[in-house]
Amino acid sequence: MANPVMKNLGTQFEQRTPAGYPTMPGYQPGRGGATPSSHDGGYPQGNYQGPQGNYQAPQQTYYQDQQQAYYQDQQPGQMPMGDYEQAYASQSADAVDRGRMTYDDVIMKTGAMFGVLLLAAVVSWVATLTVPGAAAILMFGGLIGGFVLAMVNIFSKKISPALIVAYSAAEGLVLGSISAIFEVTYPGIVVQAALATFAVMGVALALFASGKIRNTSKARRFVLIGLISLLVYNLVSMILVWTGLIANPWGISGMTVLGIPIGVLVGAFAVVLGTFSLIGDYDIAKQGVEMGAPKIFAWRVAFGIMVTVVWMYMEILRLIAILRSN
User: How many domains does the chain have?
Assistant: First the structure.
């Protein structure tokens, strides 16, 4: 996946045999192949003449002997059917009963993470506007904490809901402080960026559900190359601003081509990348549900979706700010 959070997550969903091969439907660990069933009475009995001589077939197992003796003691028409009737009448175990991930799990975990992010963002917003010097502390503290927690959650083999929630809080501190600064400079921009972000999420979900855009290998390569290109572009732009080679605070994004700011073109490209990245995230969630991934994986899927959405919000916020500054 282009989203680093989702990398190799699909292969983790897939259940495998002890030998490392993908399992087939109905596979049960510890059963290494076909076993005799009660329908055929166990292994065939008797001697057989083969190319290498006589062959003695295995005898009945103890369980088969006891089963045969039990049924011989039953009178005709009095076979024990109560267990079978109870099994047919009972309700089938669903994904929740079996501890498997469901769409509801992903939605609930994603909603919980965004709730924590929003709460932290409100605290950061108020502190930025009321406490002098709080913006820098909250912004850089959240950036460092969020980066460290993101790396731990991405590369850790064990999924930790507590660390994922902590990442949400750190990102909330950053977004709250940055959003407050942008709101003071461009009143109403935060609402515009938030609505645009939710619109992109809805469009991506609609395109994925309709099947018009699929998470193919070409789409994943496109997103990966695009994300690397954006990262290089932003790094070069920051270096040029820090060294004083470009006086415009927006860096390269503030420069124009045919009267159009480069940042607008780059921002539009970033929105397209975000849409494809979200489609990939939705596809991973679908794979996890269909493969019967353990319930804990819903946290990792929700974490990946949040990383994409937070990045997209920042890109849209900057895009609108460039448009309004011109």
Answer: 1
